[in-house]
Amino acid sequence: MRVQYIKEYSNCLDRDMEYKIYGQCGKLCLAIPSQNGRFFEWEDRGMIHEVSKWIESNQLTIITCDTLDLETWSYPYNTKVRMLKHELWFEYILSELIPSVQKKMDNQDKWMVTGASLGATHAANLIFRFPEQFDTLLALSGIYDTELFYGDYHDENTYHNNPCAYLKNMPLDHPYMELYKQSKFILCVGQGNWEQECVESLRQFSSILYDKQIDAWCDFWGYDVYHDWPWWKVQIQYFLEQIFKEV
Question: Whole-angstrom Cα distance, residue 87 to residue 84?
Fold first, then answer.
């Protein structure tokens, strides 16, 4: 497997940002770490090993990135400032990381995006807000109503980072609806330990997706399936089998 470690200065964030590329061709997939995780989390936790057969068969290239969670979603103060900084992270992903990878890989196709826990929340936000860049979502154990992160403060950035809010209000004739029809959405959650908030969130979100006529596979796994890496490794294997079986 070809692995590249990249460290590049981000003008958006005014700092060096690191990421890794696993693979050399195939579908480009941005893998977002769980809350406060780093770009090497997917390798350390064994997720890269789980998807290696698709990488080595040149069907998939995984790009593992960093987030700013410690300064944004996990930071307990000043919601306005932390959400402004999170928007800068989106700008970094869209205007710096993705173009850099596309140039390196000579691949201008739309991307897949995936993540677990808060990584799934970020992944969902990316594809639903920027469907011109992404066309496949695999979200594992995410939260899609993000009100619990904001306290009493609300502005346009808290709204646009709450998929349940902005999709609920999106008109059926919005231009994104046609892009959603061309995309694949898979959202999964277990019903075991530490998953209850995610179960309730996905139930709420799946109802909104249904009302908006957005075709999404919302999969609720068993009561033995808990919120942690051993099950996410099982899930990513299962769902990638389905995704690439249809290619």
Answer: 5
